[in-house]
Amino acid sequence: MTDTDDDAYEEPLFQRVIEYAAAADTDVVRMVSGHPDWEPPAALREGLKEYADGDPESFQYPPREGLPELRSQIAERRGVAESRVVVTNGAAEANYLAMAEALDRKPGSEVLVTDPVYPYYPGRTTMLGGEVTRVPVAADGHVDVEAMRDAASADTAAIVVNTPNNPTGAVYSPDAVAALADVAADFDALLVADEVYDHFDLSGRFESALTLDRDNVVVTTSFSKSLGITGFRVGYAVFPEDQIEAALTRHTLVNVAVSRPAQAAVAAALRETPPSYYESIRDTLRGRIDDFTAALDAAGAEYTTPEGAFYVLARFDGFPGTLENVERLIDDAGVAAMPGAAFGETYEEWIRFTLCTDRVDEAAGRLAAYFEGG
């Protein structure tokens, strides 16, 4: 399926649902956006305080590529040269830079994405003048490598994938990601791997695409989810060496640089935060998944059990995942979620719930009561 006028670019459904829930006359458990409800690391707060007390000279423009301390920590953790790292305004800008680079190499060409897909990928493609081809995932929610291979052509500029995945929760195998890089290379295209949920791998199988060490792979991510700081807007991209200058030029023209205090705080958090911080969050998510899916069982729903990230897709008999039905759930059940149709056709009958709330039990009870009563 090729989109020439993608709805994701024309109409941001996330905002429509968020605003509808905010205007509701009743209490609503909000399970729409992936903004964490957990406490950020203590070192992040301390780093921000330390920065605020620093010399005003440090309040001026940072290097366009990012603070040296932050870039060096990223490079060390990811096993790449520091020169390949560009600190960005969240994963959103990192992803944009990667997709823009891909389309610059082959102007007017197509971008292959999965279906379902995080809707901003098709939106960015359309904004950048490219064409979107959606490739349905396999029955288990994992990327269908052979279908991607069949869809690819000389017109393919990029294959964009997200693992762990939003919205399916699938964690793609290293072999599948390597095969996608091969497909991209066969057509002189880039593989853009969005790994923003890498710290939320619940399967133990996740492996970064950077381990492939390919010159046609760009990895994008951010600290928004892993440190619980979506408002800080600190992410990064790791480019092949020959693409760095073009990415930095575009980044400078659009943003000049990334917020210096936010970068300083993240650098402090990376330096001081132990692995147990991330494990405790994963433990919390495992509990929420168990509680929420148990209630979905009680409601007679079909659902996905995430291998990573923090999203659950559910299908209720006779209640397709339309915007109208999502609004009905807000009004009548007091639970806000995203329509599956916002992510494509493959799961358009489903509804996506985000588990970034400590009211998961309450939401689950409301859903069970609503559908049992219906």
TrEMBL record:
It is an enzyme of class 2 (transferase). It comes from the Archaea. InterPro entries: Aminotransferase_I/II_large, AspAT/PAT-like, NHTrfase_class1_PyrdxlP-BS, PyrdxlP-dep_Trfase, PyrdxlP-dep_Trfase_major, PyrdxlP-dep_Trfase_small. Residues 27-362 form the Aminotransferase class I/classII large domain. Signal peptide: none annotated. One of its GO terms (biological process) is amino acid metabolic process. Its cofactor is pyridoxal 5'-phosphate. Its EC number is 2.6.1.-. Keywords: Aminotransferase, Pyridoxal phosphate, Transferase. Belongs to the class-I pyridoxal-phosphate-dependent aminotransferase family. Homodimer. PANTHER family: ASPARTATE AMINOTRANSFERASE (PTHR46383). This is Aminotransferase.
